[in-house]
Amino acid sequence: MATKAPPAYDMSLVDHGFEATELKGLTYPLGDHAPGYGEIYQLAPDLGWTRMPVPGNLSHINLWLLDDDAPQGNGYAIADTGLFLPDVVDYWKSMFAGPLSQRQLTRIFVTHFHPDHVGCAGWLANKFKVPVWMNRTEWLLTRLLVNEQLEHPPEDILRRRKLYGYDDERIDKMRKGGWGNFARAVSRLPSGHHRLDDGATVRVGHRDWQILTGGGHTPEHACMVDHRNGVIIAGDQILPRITSNVSIMDSEPDADPLAEWLASIAKFRVALPEDMLVLPAHGFPFKGIHARLDRLAAGHHEQLDRLEAALRTKEMRAVDTFGLLFGRPIDDSIFSLATGEAMAHLRFLERAGRASLEVRDGVGWYSSK
Question: What pTM was estimated for this model as a whole?
Answer without folding.
Answer: 0.93
